[in-house]
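lol so apparently i was supposed to do this last week
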Amino acid sequence: MQIAAIVVAAGQGTRFGGPIPKQYLDLAGEPVLTRTLRALLAVPIDAVLVAIHQDARADYERAAAPLADKRLLPAVTGGATRADSVRNALEALSPHAPARVLIHDGARPFISPERIAALIAAEGAAILAEPVVDALWREDAGHADAPVARAGLWRAQTPQYFPYQQLLEAHRAEAATGGKPALDDAETYRRAGHQVALIEGNAENFKITTSDDLARAERILLPAFETRTGQGFDVHRFAPGDHLWLCGVRIPHDQQLEGHSDADIGLHALSDAIYGALADGDIGRHFPPSDPQWKGAESHIFLSHAAGLVRARGGRIIHAEVTLMAEAPKIAPHADAMRARLAEIMGLAVSRIGVKATTMERMGFVGRGEGLAALASATIELPREHL
Ligand code: MG
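anyway here it is w/ magnesium ion bound
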């Protein structure tokens, strides 16, 4: 065997505070570890061995199942420290006797094939690392005390790449002597007297350690906005009168619509469609009919409130449509005025708004002229939530 990879995934990851270790958290629909393993299996290495926590067997099987790759060896149980986990995995690889081994963190899913190729091209041992670009300060009781020269300082990443036998012996020697645990395999290897080359990594290959890191990883994988659609429906009955309001337009008619507010079914249905797209209740919840201040209210208040909620969440309405169901009055002559008024209320271009109408073929309550009904839909874009 030429090259084997060891993935260190035995940590319990308590920094998140949750019960699931970070390498098993869902990242855009898949466990972090699944993505890490897929990235490694995308390059020509001969075997991948994962060191897991003894209690995480079920989590691991769930993460590994979608990969179905013969190069993925049965996982080994890690130890109390990172070094113990790596050593257990190195010992488990001895029947395969790989010439070289890559050690990689389970929580670095963005390792690129091109950076792995750069590592593998190295003569001896090599690690990915990034030069430090920020100013460095030594702290004293919460205050900047002394600057630290950053020239020549590098931040280590993984994978780290070593001749297998020499790394195994370095780990065995370290375990035998005890002492301060090494930061990483590069340190273990250096303690055994060998050289380690630094190969420039990239910023995308960060380790998911905090919930902010997980959110950053999702921003890389997912579009910034998500699209949502909501529906609304409304009905009001006729009462004696001389005009009615539909989609914010006053239409002379021999009847009016009866309701707590101005009974504009078009505005009500569309407001509910927007609340629906936001998954944020309905008109009745935002403007309770039991509250006398909304009696006789002009319904543009509801629609501008709903549109305002979309803006307040950093989103936008990309399309809105109302279908009015009526035998009379005729809607078509007013449709453009309705579109213009809806556009004005919501602060949108008219081209994003549709108004259409249908009769009910004289069937049902609309067909009998007892009242009117409206259907509406709203399509909105919202900044993707971290769910
Ligand atoms: Mg209504």
